[in-house]
Write a structure and sequence with these properties.
Order of helices and strands: HHHHEHHEEHHHHHEHEHHHHHHHHEEHHH
Strand content: under 5%
Shape: globular
Distance between the termini: 27 Å
Oligomer: single chain
Largest sheet: 3 strands, mixed
Strand order of the largest sheet: 1-4-5
Amino acid sequence: MTYAPLRLEDYDISPTHGFLPSEPPLRRLPDPYYAPWEDIMDRFNQYLLAHHIRRLVRKMPVLSTDKLSTQAEYRRAFSILSFMGHAHVWGRNGTVSEPASEFLPASIAVPWVAVAEFLQLNPVVCCAAVCHWNWQILDDTAEDLMDIDNLGTIHTFSGSLDESWFYLVTTAIEAKCARGLNAILDATAAVERDDMSQVTRALHQIAYALEEANTILERMYERCDPYVFYWKIREFLAGWENMEEAGLPYGVLYEGVDDTDTFSLDNWNSLFRRFRKYAGGSAAQTPLLQALDIALGIKHFPTGERGPQSSVAEARSKLQAQGVPEPPTVNSYLVQMRDYMPGGHRRFLEDLAATCRIREYVLLECSDSLLHMGTASDPRVLLRQAYNGCVDLIKTFRDKHIMIVSRYIIAPAKNGPMSPQRVAVPESSKLMPPATYMQAMAKQTLRLQSGGRMGGDSLSADPTMYPQTNIAATLKSSEQPVSKCPIQNMLAANTRPKSVSLQAVSEAQDVGRLARKLEDGAVARGTGGTDAMQFLKQVRNETAQTRI
């Protein structure tokens, strides 16, 4: 096959910003036709806090996507529909007895699916929605416009600084690693020309980009608190695949898209087929790390399985005997995550895998006997050092990622919410006559037992949006309320308790939430629905084994 050099622009990739758009994302759709969407986003955090999201989404009209004209407008539409869609599914409507929603109204589902089809990715929150297309530049005169301290987010679920910083770390890494993408193409072309010195220089450029990425990743701890992330942010980023424990055993129905209004309640198989299951936002959805893996020939195998292990000498012998091998084997989960990337970025990974042979070149050029005899200035010694340096930096990056997952997911899950006692006597009670105070506490208890205070839209509203203080999340499984989904009602004969004692509330564990305390030995699932630690450790180990 004749080699044809790749151009980043052909895949909607920016030479200066990498997988981010070259220009800052739109902060508002220009056509007033989309005012119903933008009006909700103008006060999105307030509506979510006040438990109005589901009511507002149900009242929204089903808007056409025909008035979206540019790539930037489609990206903006996808991002805000993702925020509204996940707020509807996971927002709980403020009702302490209401589970996650298994039903996505047509006002969100229909345009979200249409926009997703245009952008060629799945209609669910993904890395692109919250990181790639959700940033703004704070100072247009700054020396480094894409420095993390000069970036801000456009939207968040929680309205917290912690959530903004969590997204911006990824955004800044993507921007800084644009240099690395250009260097990958330079190295690929140099391999075809047999230009060893240029391959080495390009590998040094990749290493510089990875050093910056490692430095930025370490800053995650500066402004994102693990407790806030796990208990107040993370659930909104979850999808609806492998989420039985979080209240979505079958996935989510997209009204108006999958004929959800035509199924027969007597035909459960027909209904099951209409549920959609998607993973949530995950770092595995960024094309950057997958591009680096492909460029350096780092192979990943199905989680829990070990790929064929061979020494460098054996790998070199096979290359010499058989020529250039097939593109690297990849973990099936990583392949699946490409469906959560824009179409151009996914095609770039596929074409890169078909053309990039950097590792093979290093293996063939750097024989063990020569390297033992060569001097430190030998070009082939320098080539191997440059290659191994890149592999080591990716391994370091994955070590840091594992540490972040341990601190931001595993530790909070094991420690529990550590929330304050909900029924503690406030200081103000000392100013109230005993009888008056007891009446007030009795009313408070009655409100808790009946599902919280009544919101302004006549829907029950939880006193707080956060799961660690959500009364419904502390009910024992035997006391869970009737689900609004007919399937769950059919499979589980749940009954609504007539009353819930405060003692039962305080002693029970969180049930039906992604953010909950885990017992010893329980699996901490990522928002993508996988066993996060098992997957990350295997990917890290496979990276380390790639050194030559």
